């Protein structure tokens, strides 16, 4: 049910269509107007075509995994929980080693530490980073890896298509100068069309390239500092408050950067980090997030 609820967001739906359209448009321009005319008959045509399409396939695979994977939704209780004795209940949870669990009034359930409620998904998400319309899903503990891989391949595809368009444009200008002037008049309409495609693809690549680079950097910083953007904002607000004694201020244990990266990308080889392969979900502080605490009194 929750997965369908995510897909009802019109902004997310438009962004998904825009993403697929941009990918297929880039592939069309690169093959039709860059590789075939500029590298025709050369081994470079096949090579660039194969590499560019492999990058796009990996981009789409990571994107689909980010879209369709569970970001780490906190399961809803099967029966309604009575929160009237919330204080004594919380103390009991802490006694059982479940410190940091909180109650979500919207989901009406207990949620593990670092889980936050997403207004779009209408559910609590474990280690929620943000809700991303480009994947029409939340970025959370279980799909952050796929989201970062999607950013990585989008950045690579943007750089690659920029390089291919610029080199094909230079080749075109050179061959026009060297070629005979009679043909110039015949090719004029298609020449304008080709240049228009080059400009559109360059603008698309620069926009998406810069956009994903910034988000990619933010994602890596948030992993290495072990602080999601929501936690960063909350901790900043806590610091600004004078005489703050709020118990929910988050202080994470200092872990090595590589351990933090492995929590997101999996414990396998670093080469596996490049592929959208399933890795076992991490369990932090010995608490298994897949199960709610035992709240039988
Ligand atoms: Zn919630
Ligand atoms: Zn969400």
From TrEMBL:
GO molecular function: protein-cysteine S-palmitoyltransferase activity
Membrane topology category: Multi-pass membrane protein
EC numbers, comma separated: 2.3.1.225
GO CC aspect terms: membrane
Keywords of the record: Acyltransferase, Membrane, Transferase, Transmembrane, Transmembrane helix
Transmembrane segments: 12-35, 41-61, 150-173, 193-217
Domain Palmitoyltransferase DHHC: 102-235
UniProt subcellular location: Membrane
Domain notes: The DHHC domain is required for palmitoyltransferase activity.
Name used for this protein in its record: Palmitoyltransferase
Gene (UniProt): LOC107692630
């Amino acid at each position: 049910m929750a997965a369908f609820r995510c897909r009802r967001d019109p902004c997310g739906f438009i962004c998904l269509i825009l993403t697929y359209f941009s990918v297929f448009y880039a592939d069309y321009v690169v093959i039709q107007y860059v590789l075939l005319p500029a590298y025709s008959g050369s081994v470079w045509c096949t090579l660039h075509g194969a590499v560019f399409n492999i990058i796009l396939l990996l981009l789409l695979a990571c994107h689909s995994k980010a879209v369709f994977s569970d970001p780490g939704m906190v399961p809803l209780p099967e029966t309604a929980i009575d929160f009237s004795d919330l204080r004594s209940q919380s103390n009991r949870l802490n006694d059982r080693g479940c410190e940091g669990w909180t109650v979500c009034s919207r989901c009406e359930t207990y949620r593990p530490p670092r889980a936050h409620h997403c207004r779009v998904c209408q559910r609590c998400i474990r280690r929620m980073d943000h809700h991303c319309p480009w994947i029409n899903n939340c970025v959370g503990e279980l799909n952050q890896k796929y989201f970062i891989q999607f950013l990585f391949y989008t950045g690579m595809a943007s750089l690659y298509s920029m390089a291919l368009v610029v080199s094909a444009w230079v080749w075109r200008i050179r061959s026009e100068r060297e070629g005979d002037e009679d043909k110039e008049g015949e090719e004029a309409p298609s020449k304008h069309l080709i240049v228009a495609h080059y400009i559109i693809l360059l603008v698309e690549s620069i926009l998406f390239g810069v956009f994903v680079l910034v988000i990619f950097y933010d994602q890596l910083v948030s992993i290495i500092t072990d602080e999601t953007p929501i936690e960063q904002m909350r901790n900043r607000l806590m610091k600004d408050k004078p005489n703050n004694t709020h118990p929910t201020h988050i202080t994470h244990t200092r872990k090595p950067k590589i351990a933090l990266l492995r929590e997101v990308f999996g414990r396998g080889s670093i080469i596996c980090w490049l592929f959208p392969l399933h890795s076992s979900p991490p369990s932090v502080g010995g608490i298994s997030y897949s199960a709610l605490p035992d709240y039988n009194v």
